Amino acid sequence: MNNDLILKVEDLKKYFQAEKTGIWSSGDKQVFALDGVSLELKKGEILALAGESGCGKSTLALTLMNLEKPTSGSIIFDGMDITNLQGDAQKQMRRRVQMVFQDPYESLNPIMSIRDLVAEPLIVHKLFLDPQERETRVRQALEDAGLKPADVYINRYPHELSGGQRQRVVVACALVLNPVLLLADEPVSMLDVSIRAEILNLLADLRREKGISVIFITHDMATAANICDRIAVMYLGRIVELGSTKEVLAHPHHPYTKALISVIPIPNPRHRRKRIILQGAPPNAMEIPTGCRFHPRCPAIFERCQVDDPALMTIRGNHQSACWLKNNGHSKA
Amino acid sequence: MSSPKNPPALLEVRNLSVEFMPNKNTHLKAVQDVSFSLHEGELLGLVGESGCGKTTMMLSLLRLLPEAGRITGGKILYRNQDLLDLEESQMSDYRWKEIAIIFQGAMNALNPVRTVHDQIAEAITCHELKTPKEKLDTRVNDLLEMVGIPASRGSQYPFQFSGGMRQRVMIAMALACSPSIVIADEPTTALDVMIQAQILELLQELSRQLGLAVILVTHDLGVVAEICDHVLVMYAGVTAEYGDVDTIYNHPVHPYTQNLIKAFPNLANPLDSLISIPGYPPRLDALPAGCRFEPRCLKAFDRCKIDQPPVYELKDRHQASCFLVEGQK
Amino acid sequence: MDYYVPPTGFKSVLLKLRGNWLAWAGIVMLLTTVILAVFAPRIAPYDPYADIKVSIMDIYAPPSAQHLLGTDDAGRDVLSNFIYGARVSLIVGFFAAFISVVIGGLIGISAGFFGGKIELILMRFTDIMLVIPDLPLAVVLVALTSPSLGNIIFVIGILGWTTTARLVRSQTLSVKERKFVLRARAIGSGNAHIIRRHIFPLVLPLMVANSVLVISLAILEESTLSFLGLGDPTMVSWGQMLNYAFTRGGVSSGAWWALVMPGLGIVWVVLGLTFLGHGLEQIFNPRLEAHHLSVGKNMVVRGKEGAGDVQP
Fold first, then answer.
1. Do the chains contact at B267 and A164, CB–CB below 8 Å?
2. What was the pLDDT predicted at C6?
3. What backbone torsions phi and psi does residue B11 show, to the nearest 5 degrees?
4. Phi first, then psi: what are they for A218, rounded to 5°?
5. Predicted ipTM > 0.90
6. What value does the mean pLDDT take over residues C16-29?
7. A155 and B CB contact within 8 Å
8. Which among C189, C201, C202 has the least Cβ separation from residue A124?
9. Are A190 and A23 in contact (CB under 8 A)?
10. Full domain range(s) for residue C132
11. Which residues of A touch B198 (CB under 8 A)?
């Protein structure tokens, strides 16, 4: 594997067994949460995984963290195959890949002090057994996450902090083990807009100062656009477009991406542009359409789309798209 | 001040103040001295951070507050009738029939064991008691079609609808008695951006078709810029700034508004560095003596710590509560 | 609504306790019983375990200055019996309940946390225990062993855990799904750590509230067993007082004091515990809270003349 890469995912699939629900039994159906995802992440890169609910981005995060076992495919982390890790090896890996969760109100146990919360990963991994050293490490992590001076926060409880501060604590908990990869699952969606920039800037700083790579999962491309180097757009368990942020936003190729970008609200009334509002909602992941999975909602559909399932194809340089439309996005391939 | 050029406002709120008294000794000023007006067919965006009082103020319009809530001042003039002068029994003529509300997260509070049709019908029968069944059914079907749900789905249960569809059901319910004003409290917050666009488009359409006035309560500035005509920005219970959408976004005068806009990611300029406003809004039991925004304001000066700025009325129906605009009238 | 952050944690419990008259009534009732039991030797005018000489006049003697609540079938002072009887009820109640809650807690947490086959087996076992009527089974068990206090405590304890198990299981299930548990897994915590650090502390308050109700049921059961003659004959208990009063001519003698007092005692303590238990449940179970919007008459407090206009 290229020494430059911190993560290489190949054809990752995760299918869930749909439970029988009695009268409205869905039989032996499967939920195709991830249906063949491949991507590469360079060291020190920030990649956005953008998509609406049901596209599989959260499942991807959980699978990358080994919190869900993949159905097939492989995950190679820093040269090591972590697809089916167990026991000690898995615990070792957990030190290097950490997650930042969406809900700062729920991801912190309300009865634990900030000190206990940040120290927990250390205790679980039996690091810094000396209480004095542990205390120092905890304070360091809090300050790295922007909670300075640590004294003010370390004895408090989650409910005494604001949403932004709580999210910083979540980041501190992730940082305390010195990870090399952070999976941030909608880290700012539940925060007020006026404080989102703090957390975004924090992630950017961590990348710059410590070389931590970040996978930034979000449904809000505008937020992602601000700090991410590349964007991967997901739809129904697949990546449908991948490229540098600038490129994807300026020249989106896949009709889904085009539609998503067109409906993102722009805080300027003079910029009211034509919105491509797709009708309906994405079908549930139990019934993937034949051919291109997007074809039932696609405004640019033609015959081939109903039959052939497009894989990610290079459009220009690093820019890839899973769509049969030709490079210029108009004529048919 | 109405004239042929300036039609009278449908709703005029003047100096509304609302307090919470969780116990005898605590007065929490949740809303203080807020004024705005709403015309037929107008879309007003009510913007602010969580806890700024926007939901409380909307509930006050309907005179529906938690037990500890008290309306302590101001007038709510609906078609020139002060709602605060009315007896509670008279309020039932206004709730839902003139002003309706879609509560925050209401789409998740639909009764899971009753069909969607029945629940919308219930909204009608609660307010217009003696409706014959046929008329009721026709009306419910009309409402469903109006919000883009095929009438045949009325016999389904809430769990069979997606989040976006359930929100449409809530809109149908709000329209049940043909109100003139619909208040939508964070109608798209939990929804994906595509569904959000659908719902906003629906609200715009309905406003156009029915002459409906809509108050859109949200923390999302982008949504407001998308469809609203006027914007009221609230901070810690007071009006920060109020004006038409172009002024607010392109010529804001209140530092809070200015910062809020800069904090918002703009896909048109994605690499503009986002600012965040340091600190956080004051707790209602610990309000600053002077301007409520002063602790977080980069343009604050001495007077701001001592006095609370009144709401200044600038020209063109533009208000701002900041000492910086004192001279400009 | 974040307009006002009410105090949380211990302070909030105390605050909620303040307004909860149910819990207070329970506390008062329980406290009086406990005081009675603890200070029995000092409060009771006579010692029920002392040897006494009685004559026929002393049997079922009605209340008098010497015996405020009369005497029982053996000439003993009913009031003193009553006061000492509180001891057995409380001892059996607390210890049996402790056993029940520990068993129920273990089963509930295991079933809820591990799920799968473990949950299936444990919950089906719980269902079977629920279906079997407690009293006949207790009667059989006590009859098979000797009726000592220890045995009674043991028997009631091992039969009374089913409601606790169900409650704990459902609470475990809900805590298990919370995001901070997912986070704990994400950092590599093992099951033991998660149960100890995250699940148990959040299940405990509900167990405490529930244990109060379990105590009241245990006391009731002990009284019933004693009433049926299966109690420890060497100790005075309310159930035993009732038993003697019924089987030894108390009714035909019209000695209402010998019947009413122990009955009243049982009712008093069980009711008190029930009040306290329900009160605690209201405090600890956030799901029982309701946040209503009201249309109260007190809502509009400004004068009929509204405030002035917007400052020009």
1. no
2. 47
3. -135, 130
4. -160, 160
5. no
6. 83
7. no
8. C189
9. no
10. 9-310
11. 277, 279
